[in-house]
Amino acid sequence: MTRTAADGNVKPHLNQNGLKCEDIKKNGFHYKTEKNGTGPAIGVASRHKLESFEQAPMYVAVMTYVGFGIVTLFGYLRDFLRAVGLEKCHDFVPLYQDFENFYTRNLYMRVRDNWNRPICSLPGPVFDLMERVSDDYNWTFRLTGKTIHSVINMGSYNYLGFAENNADFLKTVADKMHQYGVGVCSTRQEMGNLSIHEDLEQLVASFLRVESSMIFGMGFATNSMNIPALVGKGCLILSDELNHTSLILGARLSGATIRVFKHNNMHSLEKMLREAICSGQPRTHRPWKKILIMVEGIYSMEGSVVRLPEIIALKNKYKAYLYLDEAHSIGAVGRTGRGVTELFDVNPADVDVMMGTFTKSFGAAGGYIAGKKELVDYLRSHSHSRVYASAMSPPVTEQIIRAMKCIMGQDGSSEGIRRIRQLAENTRYFRAKLKEMGFIIYGNDDSPVVPILLYMPGKVVAFSREMLQRKIGVVVVGFPATPITEARARFCVSAAHTRAMLNQVLHHLNEVGDALCLKFSRRKYSSPPDLYDETDFELDS
User: Which of 455, 439, 443, 529 has the alpha carbon at shortest distance from 493?
Assistant: First the structure.
């Protein structure tokens, strides 16, 4: 990337100037309309065929809408009773207006015991939970003083099991804490630039096989504060409709024009790219200064994997730029844990901006931006996360270093590769068993994010409470975080889960699924006989 000066702002020059419709060559782009409507296919990798987005029967959607209709009517009834003084009114200042406040007060408040549960132990494969009860229908909670022990953790992003408290593994982290302390109390540009920060940046660049990298203390801010430094007014962002909130916030803060394409739909993306090139900016029709495609490696609510080879082909064809968020995929997929670029055997240099977080596979906190040295050098002086935010805590930095060295084998052991293989084995085993049972699950067979579709609001609440009674901690998600007819439970598989743990979870899932009538799938699956034998297990490229 070259630099240009305009209106006092220095930004990477991703120029679209002079590119007309007739200048765009076909360059072998092959059109093929697939059954699922995803449009053109450019040598689609076979693993995309492993993705499942089965639709529920029509009656399920109808009953879901009926369920929301009933609770909404009761909400209006309760608001009327409060207005006339027949029901106690909690005199809190509303945080939201109109329907958002109504939804929070009358729908979410009735079921919020299923979220924000207080954990009082390490969030490893099992954890301890503080028991709480409510005497006023979930407006407030009180702790009973009891602890629910050994709850199987199926909700944390601890993909490789590095959220651990083994003293032998954490010795270097303790040493760094004694050497540097816990906090830095300064930004990287002032007095907070430590040698271990630079060591980690070099290690990340080596791990990702790129020229340079830059680390940040918060994963969410890595997206929201760096995107505005890359694009601005006169630029166009093409964003997947299921992108994370941090990407959406960063795009909005940038001031760039935002257009949303259908999830993993190459036909939708190419159509928008064509229109952007041919029509230019609204009203003036001048060429866009930059066109940036924003996608995720693994989508955290769907468990689907980005169609990276096809997006790169489109990016190159239309001279756009690619921003790849690997928060959930780095460390979790690929033969050596290097994310979706390794999963699809793609050259990392084909991705202009590589972003990821350390909060999941590495059991720590923070995030990174990686790519060409010119890009990273630019962000060092223009990123708000770098200039104004406190530097990453030294113990956290060392935790990332020791986890990454373990994955890369630089600690002299094969523990990292063993964990990667164990995660892949657990993921495929868990997904295959759920399909056999008749649950509708979303996503790619390689994805450790496993959403089970529950649909109806009453079933979501009952499922979460029933699973906790069986000492299984799950995360349930509903509207507005998901479409109104696609409420779900999101399971996150970990390398730290033993086969016995997974079998116990599957056993209870089978019972709860039958009791609550959650097995909506109309497809028939059979288990491959030897797929999960550790002696025969091999990772796909």
Answer: 443
